[in-house]
Amino acid sequence: MAGTRKGTAEKRGFYHVGLDADKVIDAAVALSQGDGLATWTLRDLGERLGVAPSVIYHHVGGREALSRHVVERILTLVGQPTTAMPWRQWFREALYPLRPVLTDYPGTARWLLHGPVFPGAAPVVDSGIASLQQAGFGRHAALAYSSLVNTAMMTIAAIDDRRLHEDDGPRDHAALIRDLGPITAGSAGISLLTRDLLTRFTGAPQEIAAAQDRYYRYVLERLMDGL
């Protein structure tokens, strides 16, 4: 019995050799790239690392804690402004570089809509609010900040959802255009939407990505016009 316990302990120790929280998070970030934050399990991550899920839990915690670490790590890939400046410039510098990075990790933007604010984000939030206050937004500064950030995240999340379900015919723009074909001739509005909007999101992947970026910036610029 003692020998069995010793062997088990040695095996458990072997599983921990060279593994730490940073390596677990690195592997989770890699799994999230392309396929998405919500598409893998602790078991998938354990198989990638060659350990049992319990080892991951020991180093980092459960799935929610790990998702938090992954999102926080992804955000470090983007330089965010931490000083006040003209408010539209601040939001362009904060939100425009964010889209391509979050798009590489589908599900991250949706998590940010509902997840907690990281302590490290405080200087970014402070400088954004200060930029709005200096521009005279007064008691509306928090509402303006939230409107812009949430709209950015929701726009990215909507594109993520389409990417994650790209094999679902009704969600495909080309399939949608074909489905609308029979009623396009009799509807000026649908004809315009098809010609001037939907067709922008068909073609080569790089063309679609460019169209998505233009749409993202258009939405935020028009929101800033309104604010």
Structural account:
With 227 residues, the protein is mainly alpha-helical. Helix content is 70%, strand content 0%. It has 13 helices and no strands. It has helices at residues 2-16, 21-32, 42-49, 53-59, 63-75, 87-95, 98-104, 108-114, 122-134, 141-164, 173-184, 188-196, 205-226. The longest helix has 24 residues, at 141-164. It is flat. The relative contact order is 0.09. Residues 1-14 have low confidence and may be disordered.
List keywords for this structure.
single chain, 227 residues, mainly alpha, disordered N terminus, 70% helix, flat, 13 helices
Secondary structure: elements and pairs:
Elements: H1 2-16, H2 21-32, H3 42-49, H4 53-59, H5 63-75, H6 87-95, H7 98-104, H8 108-114, H9 122-134, H10 141-164, H11 173-184, H12 188-196, H13 205-226
Helix pairs in contact: 2-5, 6-9, 8-10, 9-10, 10-13, 11-12
Any idea what the radius of gyration is? 22 Å
Helix fraction bin:
55-70%
Number of strands: 0
Distance between the termini: 72 Å
Gross morphology: flat
**How many strands, what sense, and barrel or not for the largest sheet?**
none
Mean model confidence by pLDDT: 85
Structural class: mainly alpha
List segments where confidence is low: pLDDT < 50 over at least 5 consecutive residues: 1-14
Number of helices: 13
